[in-house]
Amino acid sequence: MKDIIKIDARSKNIRELLDDVKYTIDYYQREYKWERKHIEELLRDLTGKFLDSYAERHERTAVERYTHYFLGSIVISSKNGQRYIVDGQQRLTSLTLLLIYLHNLQLERADQVDVTKLIFSEKFGRKSFNLEVPERMACMEALYNGQPYDAGESSESVRNIAARYEDIEDLFPDDLKGYALPYFIDWLKENVDLVDITAYSDDEAYTIFETMNDRGLKLSPTDMLKGYLLANINDSRDKEQANRAWKRRIAELIDLGKEEESDVFKAWLRARYAETIRERKRGLNNGDFEQIGTTFHRWLRDERARIGLEKSADFLDFVTQHFDRYSGLYLRMRRAAQTLTPGLEYVYYNAHNNFTLQYMLALATIRVDDDLDSAERKIRLVAGFLDIFIARRIVNYRTLSYSSIVYTMFNLMLEIRDLDVPTLAALLYNKIAGMEETFDAVDHFALNRVNRHAVHYLLARITHHIEQQSGIESSFEAYISREIKKPFEIEHIWSNRYEQHWDEFTESAFNEYRNRIGGLLLLPRGFNQSLSDDTYEQKLSAYFGQNLLARSLNPQCYQNNPSFLAYVRRSGLPFEPHTQFRKADLDARQSLYRLICEEIWSPVRFERELE
Question: Closest Cα to residue 351, out of 33, 37, 31, 32?
């Protein structure tokens, strides 16, 4: 007699799914691979759905009547008393990171919403995470306890977990950190639902997983858009021409990344046609911006008259001219974002800071009949503006989260759409001149728990810049790479020994001052660690064998070094050796770093583009 197969499927909210329930994954399961853009999309979807219902100043019990949000299904294999995740570990891991962040965010609040049992449980004095994977434990513990964690030599999953937690810290919207926070956490626990599909053997669990993913393959939005556009081209030869152009370009996009074929339409259609965006308020309808981001194929069909799609020739031109031109420029920018490309360096720098809106902004400026030189100059101008914008935001401790800047960037897009090169350069120059944030903030800028990535980036740009200007071979990619054998890490010039500085500081003041950027360098892992407890005088000779920013502390750097000394004279920067490193020395370096920042991110770049 054939065995009876038992499968349970039930809708559960996050509280029911995670409260005192343990999950694990088999060793053969794939790594945790979510990228920043996936976290950004999750947070945008969750917070947007919450704000659809949220109204200030009502009882929290009203959250029960808020709209629910469906987060998909998970497939579980229940065996030997354990629940193994077959499908859904990316979402469950990301939800756990979000819950850890929310736990830490509300530690000092009187109106805390308890989420601890959704993160871990405790038996016989032993605490274990509800998503229990041994190799991840140390990292998860550090994150939960608000401690820094160096994931440099860890597995891919652990490195991604540490990076995605930093992304959540950076991307979680400011408008939900105040009065609305407990309402949001209540809603997240009770009104966000998943379907838990549990089988009682691996075979059945994987059969369910394969059935859900393989059968009845749905057309993607790109496929549906292609079908609509080609169906409106009457001549068979024109239709075949459009089809060949489409297939060629889509193949290039897919080679670059599996999500590029949809991302290009979001960037292009927003850039060229979006006129409205939804404000983050209750009861408002989505604008062009949001509709293109979710259902661009449907939006284009609905707005065909506004776009100018009326007769067959319009549709042919749209595919063979407009799509071909803008997708080609998008590909060029995306490739420049992955590989440092002469003339498009700013695109690479912005991509390193996860600034995905740069593609939309650049495409907004380019007319379909612009020549390639004009198009690339416009890309450089926009990317150069964003490069300055990002750096100034960083040193002023201003967030770059999507929710905090999307309206500013959308309005900027409307302003710069179709501008010629001189007008665009003048407008962006004036935007920089009018920014509230300046590099004066560098005088007090310091490393903290949430800005390590940003500080590392600034030090890499500073080091790379002064080496380039001094005619020394230099690689920005090497300074930021985590893949090389000994990646560069942030080095504190002062060892963590207050007793060496008691005559100038209280202990708390020392800890704050030690983290100031003027007291930081980049050094290779291992070398950095070998110096950690040394005095400054012991470190100084070792610094001379490292990059130019470190060498410039040593008096020997100012002897028989004509290219560096020529740069010092040419720039007027106050480089000087430091045989000791007291408070006044750190202050001098802090001022030097500020002046280097002003040189790197000078608005003179806009004038050069007009030469």
Answer: 37
DSSP 5: P
pLDDT, one tens digit per residue, over 564-583 is 999 999 999 999 999 999 99
**pTM score, whole prediction:** 0.83
Quote the CA–CA distance of 151 and 145 in Å, as a whole number. 16
d(CA 101, CA 103): 5
C-beta of residue 439 within 8 angstroms of C-beta of residue 396:
no
Are 144 and 103 in contact, with CB atoms under 8 Å apart?
Answer: yes
- Structure-block tokens of residue 300: 């284009």
Alpha-carbon span 565 to 472, nearest angstrom: 12
* Tens digit of each residue's pLDDT (9 = 90 or more) over 152-176: 777 888 889 999 998 998 889 888 8
Q: Is the dihedral of CA 380, 385, 390, 391 positive or negative?
A: positive
Are 345 and 389 contacting, i.e. CB atoms less than 8 angstroms apart? no
Residues 112 and 182 sit within 8 Å (Cβ to Cβ) = yes
> Residue 126, SS3?
strand
Residue 276 to residue 293: CA distance in whole angstroms: 12
Specify which residues 199 forms β-bridges with. 7, 77
3-state secondary structure 258-309: CCHHHHHHHHHHHHHHCCCCCCCCCCCCCCHHHHHHHHHHHHHHHCHHHHCC
603, 33, 37, 424: which is closest to 267 by C-alpha? 37
Query: 3-state class of 194 per DSSP?
Result: strand
Place of tokens 């950076």: 170
